[in-house]
Amino acid sequence: MASILITGASSGIGRALALEYAGPGAVLSLHGRDTARLEAVARDCAARGARTATATVDVRDREAMAAWVLERDEATPLDMVVPNAGITTGLGQGRVLEDPDAVRALLEINLLGVLNTVDPVLPRMLARRAGRIGFVGSIAAYRGLPYSPAYCAAKAAVHAYAAGLRAGLEPHGILISLIAPGFVTTPLNKDIASWKPLAMDDAKAARIIRRGLDRGKPVIAFPKLLAWGTRALDLIPAAWADWGLRRARVEIPETTEKPRAWRG
Prior knowledge:
By secondary structure, the chain is of the alpha/beta class. It is built from 9 helices and 9 strands. The chain is 44% helix and 16% strand. Strand 5, helix 6 and strand 6 form a beta-alpha-beta unit.
């Protein structure tokens, strides 16, 4: 039996990953912000034989997240946690600077939301000397992009945090995997107007992620060609890379989210 907690499970990669793991014996703790969509995902998972529990807790609420995560761990000790919830924001034609409120809202959800999800369960996994965390980063973390600086920064922080935890926790029985997807067809990026090389649907992405998690891979970056290509930008002079990135026509909508904890 596997007990798995996934945030951001009402759509996109989170939903596809929940369905991928759904089956007899699976216990899925599913989190999302859209109650109707989340309950639909839970029903689909139950139809495949999984036991499910859902919550619409705000990932920015540290205390509420801790209470829910610990409640789920008490019910069925968690074998794996996938902090996947996130939003996007960015720039486009005629917009040069990101709105400070949009930046802070994104950091609260995409970075602090990750910490609020994993912090409560890590001491318990340490005590059991068993567990797995699948941090969801992005290929965008490999190079700061002029049309989404805040998003890249948040994901880069997740990458660094996952790498640091991995080295320290593996000797104690906890496996850390960093998931770095490229373009996946999800509601998160459907309104982004740009060339999306090697894009794939969320079901295919979930299969790749599960295969990597089940094998205990430390880094699950895909598609590989795009991952290596993005990393290669740091191997050429920065002025050349910046020139090329500026020529790309990208339009990323600004998030309507407002910061919860930070004001001013």
